[in-house]
Amino acid sequence: MFAFLLQSVASTFDRPAIDLHALAPEFVLTGALVVVLLVDLFTPKGSRGIVPSVAGIGILAAMVPVLTLALDGADRSMFGGAYVVDNFSLVLQAMFLLAAYVVVLLSTNYVAEGDYAEGEYYFLLLCALLGMLVMASSRDLITMFVALELLSIPAYMLAGWRKRDRRGNEAGVKYYLMGVFASAVMLYGMSLLYGISGSTLFSDIALAVARGNGLGDTTPLITLGVVFVLIGFAFKVSAVPFHTWAPDTYEGAPTPVTAFLAVSSKAAGFVALLQLILIAFIGRDDVVGPLMWVLAALTMTVGNLIALRQTNIVRMLAYSGVAQAGFMLAPLAVVGSNSDGARSAVVTYLLIYAAMNLGAFAVVLIVARKTRSAEIASWGGLFEYAPGLTVLMTVFLFSLAGIPPLGGWLAKFVVFRALLSPDLTAGGVILAVVVGVNSVIALYYYANVARQMWMNPVPDGDRTPVRIPFSLAAAVTLSVVLTVAFGVSDLATHLGDLATFLPA
Amino acid sequence: MIAIAQVTPVWYLVLASVVFAIGAVGLLVRRNPLVMFMCVELMLNAVTLTFVTFSRMLNDVNGQTVVVFVLVVAAAEVVVGLGIIVALLRKQPSATADDLTVLKG
Amino acid sequence: MSDFLRDYLTVGIFGLTGVALVGLLLGLGSLLRPTRPQPQKYINYESGVDPVGTGWGQSNVRYYIFALLFVMFDVEAVFIFPFATRVDAYGWFGLIEMGIFIVVLALGLLYAWKKKVLRWV
Predict the structure, then answer these.
(1) pLDDT confidence tier of residue A1, bands split at 50, 70 and 90
(2) Does residue B38 have a pLDDT over 60?
(3) Which of A26, A408, A452, C40 is most open to solvent, judged by the fewest CB atoms within 10 Å of its CB?
(4) Closest in B62, B84, B92 to A156, CB measured
(5) Cα separation of B37 and A120, whole Å?
(6) Domain ranges for chain C
(7) Has residue A2 got a pLDDT over 60?
(8) How far is CA B60 from CA A9, A117, B57, in A?
(9) CA A85/CA A504 separation, integer angstroms
(10) Which residues in chain A have Cβ-Cβ distances shorter than 8 Å to C93?
(11) Does residue A298 contact residue A327 with C-beta atoms inside 8 Å?
């Protein structure tokens, strides 16, 4: 977004029109960041609990301008079209803010009770959130790159937050090395796209990419650029074969950070993919479609098959997240014939996935407070001493598996609808069959956890009830209400249809 | 005098692609986390060279703007990455990527 | 001969002169000086201190945080230079924008200061 300032150096300087209302969510969040940092620096060491409250209030305060912008309804475009506020960005920004708020709720007790730096934790969380908000509005390569790094670099640090633990270190190093490798590949793709189009704006790139001229015969160069950029984001959404970091990082990172990576960070990757594929590369669905088809089919199949063998619940959720990413990639394979349907399906799926996955992680955190273990075997007989939690976890697991009338069912349904309409194509039908088969496989490992909770005996015979701190209870309540509401109402599909891009 | 071809911008693009490939292969082949990390820097430098060359070919200043952002982001990545790697090497002073096996993908 | 090659010819002549000069002086020295080799003379020069251990000995990373801070703040300056060349054209708008930028950087420095990493240990 600063490109505009530097670009004007050559000519006389025109002051860019800055729409303060459009930028208000980012400004409020930046203010919250600064306050979090200062509060952490200038409060005495013992006073814990202030920083998470400030962070939570900051996130909710940033929600206010998002809502006023949504009520206002006007599409706003700034910096020559590099930064846009449209329905798409508002829906996704609201989702990022809500998801981050739930992550703050999940973190409060975990961070306060462990030996962790508290102020920095929330500061970095808000930094990453700011990057996600910018990502949802960016329609320019530079802005998108800065947004991606703003959300990735804090995430590298958060992943290695347990720095006295070997697994924590390993999680950080693996995520970091894979992440920077991915962003370097993506940047090289961006440089090729810039060379072809002579501009960093998505709308200009769309023209050049579809037309295919520019500096001589550049079709192979365009293909290379498009593929490199998409592969860079495939790492972010942990698509197979670029998923190898995900399970290790998820297991080694603190569990609230795992929830953040699995939901918000992955959603940010999908937001970037949607913007790139539907705005910048829309003329090249002959390249994007097959690539996404292969990625989607591989991702859900491999993710599910490995998830079957997991004995650790966090690793199982990690691989299930990989498989879910495959379901979300599937609509992008038919982007050539049904671009609106694909966009709507992915946004709907993202909203539902965020609700149910955060809920599942919240229950994992609560149970781990008692059992001190993440092994699925330690969940045996949960129903005997925590029936409420068992019901809630069952709701989240069955929703992830896609059983009606829960949210996950609707998410699968919109994917099928996007693949099979407006008319049947061979690729769409085969992919729909793959999605169907994988949904059945996934049911097995989700049901396995449920069986463990309902039927098996308590492993150590300890039947004392689980104490649930207030913030975790709030997080679970929010998640379960949304998971059920998304399933029984058309709220999510409605938001998905609503999230349209500003016409270029 | 021996005729030497004029250095055209395409040479720089080829050089950048070679440097990028060296970095990518190095990252996949080398096992010391610090060396792997230097390979990433090599890849980023190839990217900036490509951007500057295209900027020159297209006579457009935007490409140079990107380079400034890439530089700053690369510095931020260096700082964070060194922090993470030092934290690892404090625990395991001679760790290579092959030793990172507590967690199995 | 093109201008392009003429420039390189100058560089070449300059380089050759340098090499020749060094060769001449060292050659003269070896002709004039007495030659009495002793093992002491083949030890690496370490400012007068006898070297201990191998060249791969680990050194204290006491200064590594200073280095990291330096890298970060040094690179951020790259945004200030283009701004400084056109400060009059940007006017108040540019000054305020740059002021915000520098305040944010200063916050980082304040953080480092409060966390006592700027102290010389």
Answers:
(1) very low
(2) yes
(3) C40
(4) B84
(5) 24
(6) 1-36, 60-121
(7) no
(8) 12, 45, 8
(9) 13
(10) 15
(11) no
Q: Angle at which helices A313-329 and A407-420 pack, to 10 degrees?
A: 30
Mean pLDDT of C30-49: 81
Which CATH architecture does the domain made up of C60-121 adopt? Answer: Up-down Bundle (1.20)
pTM higher than 0.90 for the full model?
no
Locate all alpha helices (DSSP H) within B1-105, ordered by sequence. 9-29, 33-58, 62-91
pLDDT greater than 70 at residue B103:
no
- The pLDDT of residue A167 is above 90: no
AA identity, residue A367: V
Interface of C with B in 29-68 (CB under 8 A): 61, 64, 68
Of A211, A405, A247, A256, the closest CA to residue A321 belongs to: A247
Distance, CA of A389 to CA of A386 (rounded, Å): 6
**Residues A376, A174: Cα–Cα separation, whole Å:** 25
Does A173 sit within 8 Å of B100, measured CB to CB? yes
Rg (CA), chain C: 27
The DSSP string of A402-448 is T-TTSHHHHHHHHHHHHHH-SS--HHHHHHHHHHHHHHHHHHHHHHH
- Distance between CA atoms of A97 and A62, rounded to whole angstroms? 8
- State the distance between the two ends of chain B, measured CA to CA, in whole angstroms: 60
Answer for the pair B40, B23: CB distance below 8 angstroms, yes or no.
Answer: yes
Distance from C-alpha of A126 to C-alpha of A30, rounded to nearest angstrom: 8
pLDDT recorded at residue A133: 93
Give the pLDDT band (50/70/90) at residue A60.
very high
Residue A198 zone, left/alpha/beta (φ > 0; ψ -120 to 50; rest):
left
pLDDT on residue A10: 46
A225 touches chain B (CB under 8 A): no
Considering only residues B99 and A172, tell me which one the structure prediction assigns the higher pLDDT.
A172
φ and ψ at residue A58, rounded to 5 degrees: -60, -45
Listed in sequence order, the DSSP H helices in A212-284 are 219-236, 245-252, 255-260, 266-275
Cα–Cα separations (whole angstroms), residue C35 to A3, C25, C30, C31 = 65, 17, 8, 10
> Which residues in C lie closer than 8 A to residue A41 (C-beta atoms)?
110-111, 114
Dihedral of the alpha carbons of A358, A361, A367, A370, in degrees to the nearest 10: -110
**Residue A48 confidence (pLDDT):** 67
Beta carbons of A382 and A390 less than 8 angstroms apart: yes
How many C-beta atoms surround the C-beta of residue A8 within 10 A? 17
Residues contacting residue B33 through CB under 8 Å, at least 6 positions apart: A173, A177, B85, B88, B89, B95, B96, B97
Q: What is the per-residue pLDDT for C15? A: 94
Q: Quote the tokens at residue C23.
A: 């060769």
**What would the two tokens of residue A381 be?**
């007989």
Tokens of A174: 């693996």
Is residue A316 predicted with pLDDT exceeding 70? yes
In degrees rounded to 5, what are phi and psi of residue A410? -60, -40
Domains of chain B by start residue, with CATH = 9-93 (1.10.287.3510)
Q: Note whether A123 and A40 are within 8 A (CB).
A: yes
Residue ranges in A138-165 assigned as alpha helix (H): 141-159
Instruction: Report, as an integer, the average pLDDT of A405-416.
Output: 87
**Beta-bridge partners for A375:** A312
- What's the confidence (pLDDT) of residue B23? 92
Q: How far is CA C105 from the centre of its chain?
A: 23
Check residue A489 and give its pLDDT: 85
Mean per-residue pLDDT, A385-399 = 88
Q: pLDDT of C89-115, one tens digit each?
A: 888 888 898 999 999 889 988 988 888
Give the best residue of A157, A173, A245 to mutate against chain B (max B CB count within 10 A): A173
